[in-house]
C-alpha cells in the first residue's frame, strides 16, 4: 500500500471496531494509518485481515500502512502521531497496565519529545460517560499540547477469529471535543471527520455537543447492554423470555432508561423519553449480543464502571434515586468479581470465606 502524506493516525485496539476504523481511514486515503495489533500481529503481518464488511464488501489481505506489535514498539518508531485513536475497552477497575492513560502513555511521551508545537489529539472511541477525566488527570494537557476528543460509534463489528472481522452494521461515527470551548480540539475533531468520511459508505459527523450524544448512547448501554450481560442472552431473547413478553421491557429496560434520562437532566441534558421505546424497538428483531454480554461470555472484564458506575456517581451527587440501575450495577459488580478472580486479579481464601487483601 502506498504511503500517503497527511496526518499520522495510530489506532490502538485491533478488535472489530479498531480494524474497521483503520480500514475506513485507509479507504479515504488522506492520512497515514498505523495499527497496534498485539495478539494477531504475526498473522496480519503475513497475510493481512479477512474482512466481510457491509460498508466495503469482502476484503482479503487488508493491512494499514504500518502495523506494530505493541504501543511501545510504535512509540520507538520515531514518528509523531497527530491522532492517537483508542478503540480498546475502557475498564478503569481492571489491571493498571490496561487502563487508558497507561495504554497511551508511551505514545503521549514520545510525541511530547518529538513535538515541534503540534497538538497530540487523543480520540476515545469508547463507551461511557466521563471517560476523558482519567486522561486529563494523568497528563497535563497544556504541557503535553493535548486535545482529548470523543468518538461515539454505532457499528456492528466483531473479530470472529484471528485475523477475521465480521462487520454487519453500517459504521456511524460521531466525533466532537470533550471541551466544547476548546477551539483546537474542535478543529481537530472536524479534521478527523474529513479523514474518516467515505461518501456512500460510512456516516460520519461532527458533534458540537458531544456530551449529549454520550448520554443518548448511554440509554442503550446502561439498560440493555448491562441486562444482556447479566443474563447472558441476546436482546430478542431478553424481550421474548420476559413474563408475558413484556416484563423485560416494562420493568427493566424502560425504567432503567428513565433513570438515565433523569440523571442527564440534572446536568441540563434533556433526552426525549421516546428514545426508551426507540432503543427497545430497534433491537427487538436483531439477533445481536451487545459488547458487555460478549465480554462476560468470553470471561473478559466488562466496561461496568464507565457505563454504570460513573452515571451512578453523578446520580448520588445530585440526590437522584436509581433503584433499577443500582440493582443492575450491584449484581454486575458480583459478576465482575467472578471474572476478576478467574483472571487472577482477585484472590479468595475459601478456608476463611473472604477476599485476600494484597
From TrEMBL:
According to its record, what are the GO cellular component terms?
Answer: cytoplasm
- PANTHER family in UniProt: 2-DEHYDROPANTOATE 2-REDUCTASE-RELATED, PROBABLE 2-DEHYDROPANTOATE 2-REDUCTASE
What Pfam families does the entry give?
Answer: ApbA, ApbA_C
Q: What SUPFAM superfamilies is this protein classified in?
A: 6-phosphogluconate dehydrogenase C-terminal domain-like (SSF48179)
The Ketopantoate reductase C-terminal domain is annotated at 213-332
Q: Which domain of life is it from?
A: Eukaryota
Question: Where in this chain does the entry annotate a coiled-coil region?
Answer: none
Domain named Ketopantoate reductase N-terminal is located at 9-179
* Protein name in the entry: ZYBA0S09-02432g1_1
